Amino acid sequence: MSSTELPSLLTATASPKASAVRVAPGERLRSVRLPGITLSVRSRPPAREGLPPALYVHGLGGSSQNWSALMPLLDGLVDSEALDLPGFGDSPPPDDGNYSVTGHARAVIRYVDSAGRGPVHLFGNSLGGAIATRVAALRPDLVRTLTLVSPALPELRVQRTAVPTALLALPGMSALFTRFTKGWSAEQRVRGVTALCYGDPGRVTEEGFRNAVEEMERRLQLPYMWDALTRSARGLVDAYTLGGQHSLWRQAERVLAPTLLVYGRRDQLVGYRMAQRAARSFRDSRLVSLPDAGHVAMMEYPEAVAAAFRELLADAGRSRGGADVEPVDEEPSGSEPVGSDLVGASPAGSTSVGSSPAGSSPVGSSSGAVGVSGEGGSVSGGGSVGADDGDAVAEGPPKGSPGGGS
Prior knowledge:
By secondary structure, the protein is of the alpha/beta class.
């Protein structure tokens, strides 16, 4: 049994409640009890009946609030729900204390199965991207399309700015960090998270910053916050260091769903160089590069991400025709992955993103591509990447609040 699977000291039934979680206008928050876990689910009322469901999975240290800027932009396209993973947001810890990537993936699968909402348009950011990749590989019947924003897929050369996050996985580091930061205010912590996760922290609005400070103060009241954070970090590191058939890169190759990959050139947690490998690994993929974005593009540039998803839907509708797929047996308990070189991507249309003046429309489409007027590199799906030197950004007003996590 790995350390990520040891029983948590505080179970879901014993976990105390902190102050109320913020719910943005138009959103609803409800609690769903499933075997071994209780999940908090954030949703928006669908614009009309019959819309296909979408499910959003946040990153390490984040919550369902990380998707509040993107979800309204997809009203009329999908019926949106965002999960708080066990131990994050308003979800209490899992009963078994399993914070591995596999454990989180099982939580997502259990929810989709129990809600009867599958197949869903599945979104994931960072750790949520690794989780979503595993879900799509294990249960292709549950996933219509896959959208990954800076997915935390294994990389051998970790960026220096990502090392402190990785160090949280080491035994004793959580207690050391807690003592070291004991005197830090919630505002100082939020500024640190913003500087790490945003390409341009200045895009955070004053209201967004205040909301993030309020959420940080709430989280600091939770006695299991550091336990959930460190065990999930350890689970992600385990996923990076174990190889074999259950490698995340191998599982990426098994994904059948049309896949949208969104990478920020200013990402300090997930190396931009991994974008090309990801585009080669997912067999039916398109890649969008945002050179001014950081780790949480769906919060910094939600309009660009929404426009790229619209194009993904259009292409998927033309190419797949809604074909059903069969589930794959779930992998054994405790198995975790690492990367392997993969080839064999197939074309899935092309996407180009370019810079545009501030205040202009962020993304406009024509001829089946996502595009913006101005200079910029072209990025094509299916493993062909052509934006190594192209500058591309979708301008728009500051969106979302900090606290994206990794």
